[in-house]
Amino acid sequence: MNGEHILYCQDRGIIRRVDRLMSLYTYACAVFFAISVLASVVLIWLGSVTTAISMFILSTAITGYAYSSLLQRQQHIKEITDKTIDALQKRWDELRRDQELISFFAASIDQQDLNDKIKLKVRLFIATVLDMYALVLHYINHGYFIHAQHFAAIYENMIKSLFRYPHICEVWKSRDVWGKGCLRDEYGESLVYVVDEVIKEIEQEMNKEKTIP
């Protein structure tokens, strides 16, 4: 998987809008700095030393601000990524501490033994994980990541890994079985599209495995 389902949902009008604006701003500042330095040299040659120094200081300040903005942008992306990964890790840590959830994911609980409490717990756990993926898709689809394809491939594979577990697809699609309403209806178009396409891929792979002699 190379993230094609996530990238398909990108808003074509604002893809990488933040990065393009920052790049344009940076180029404009660089041009301004070059022109200012050239103008400062000319002013010094004409004898206006004070004006030349003031212009050079101003151009240096503007260029420094542009560079600082770029560093903040990169730091912001790193923080988003780290917080998202940390939140997902905490979700899976919660799973490892809960024997009922572990038994469910390991398919060691018979379907008839799943009471309403366990079903609701499973639904809420999966919902908290999907909430994080919905946030990630929002960031990717709205241009907040420079290497969108790289991040899309990573998170699409993570979603696929989740839905490979038994019964997870049923939790996603069923209505009033794992809690009130349908979990699928609680999410936006982007996540629903990605999950549905991932489930199709999983089903196709399973069908191929069955046909192999």
Shape, per Cα inertia axes: elongated
Q: Rg, please?
A: 26 Å
Oligomer: single chain
Structural class: mainly alpha
Please, how many helices?
Answer: 8
Low-pLDDT runs: none
Estimate the mean pLDDT confidence: 81
The helicity comes to over 70%
The ordered string of helix (H) and strand (E) elements is: HHHHHHHH
Give the number of DSSP strands: 0
How far apart lie the N and C ends?
25 Å
Q: Can you summarize the main beta sheet?
A: none
What proportion of the residues form beta strands (DSSP E)? under 5%
Layout of SSEs?
Elements (H helix, E strand, L loop, with lengths): L3 H5 L8 H30 L2 H49 L1 H7 L10 H26 L6 H16 L4 H6 L15 H23 L2
Helix pairs in contact: 2-3, 3-5, 5-6, 6-8
What would you say this structure looks like, in words?
Helix 3 (49-97) packs antiparallel against helix 5 and helix 6 crosses helix 8 (189-211). It is elongated, with a radius of gyration of 26 Å. It has 213 residues and is an all-alpha fold. Helix content is 76%, strand content 0%. The protein has a domain at 4-12 and 76-211.
Which keywords apply here?
about 210 residues; 8 helices; about 75% helix
